[in-house]
Amino acid sequence: MLYKDQERQQQQDKIREKEKEILKIMNDTNQQTNQVMVKLDAQGNKINQIEDNFIENGNNLNKTQWMLRNIKSFGGQIKGLFTKPKVEEKQQKQEQIQIQNKTQTQNQNQNQNLQHQKKDDFLNQLENELNTLQQNQKLIGQTIDQQNSQLNKINSKADKQTQQLNKQNNDIKKIIK
Q1: Which is higher by pLDDT, 158 or 113?
Q2: Which of 90, 120, 132, 164 has its CA 20 to 30 A from that of 15?
Q3: For residues 45 and 77, what is the distance between their CA atoms, to the nearest angstrom?
C-alpha cells in the first residue's frame, strides 16, 4: 500500500512538472508572438509613411502636370485660371489606419486582461494561453493581409507615377524644342 502511494505521488509530481514545462513553453511562445506583433506594428507604420509619401508625390505630379498644361498653349493658360490641380484624398487611408489602431488596441487590452487574471488550475491556464495565441495569430494574419494590400496599392501608385513622370518628361522635351 505504501509503495502504491509513493508511486502515485511520483506520477503526480511528474504530471506537475510536465504542466510547468507546457506553461513555460506557452509563455515563451506568447512572448515571441508579442515581439512579432511589435515588429509588425513598426513595419505597418513604415508602410503607412511610404504610402503617405506616394500620396504626396502623386499630388506633386498632378500639380506639375497641371502647370505643364498651362504652359503648353494659350488655351491651357486660360483653362488654368479656372481649374486647380487634382489632389488625392487621404480619408480612405486614415480610415484604414483607424481600424488597424482599434484592432491593435483591442488586442492589447485583451492581452493585459489575460495577464492580470489569476489562473487557478492548469486547465484554465492552458485554455487562456491557447486563446491568446489564437487571437494573436489571427491579428498577425490580419495585419499581414492589410500590409500586403497596402504594398499592392503602393506598387500600383509607383507604376502610375512612373508613367506620369515619363509623360511629363516627354512634354517638357517638346516644350523645350
Answers
A1: 158
A2: 132
A3: 41
Rounded to whole angstroms, the Cα distance separating 140 from 86 reads 36
Residues in contact with 88: Cβ distance below 8 Å, sequence separation at least 6, in sequence order = 55, 58, 59, 62
Rounded to whole angstroms, the Cα distance separating 71 from 93 reads: 33
The letter for the amino acid at 116 is H
Whether 133 contacts 29, CB under 8 Å: yes
The vertex-110 CA angle with 104 and 111, nearest 5°, equals: 90
**pTM reported for the whole predicted model:** 0.53
Query: What's the farthest any 2 CA atoms get from each other in the chain?
Result: 109
State the pLDDT at residue 110.
67
Question: With 0-12 CB in 10 A as exposed, 13-18 as middle and 19+ as buried, what is 132?
Answer: buried
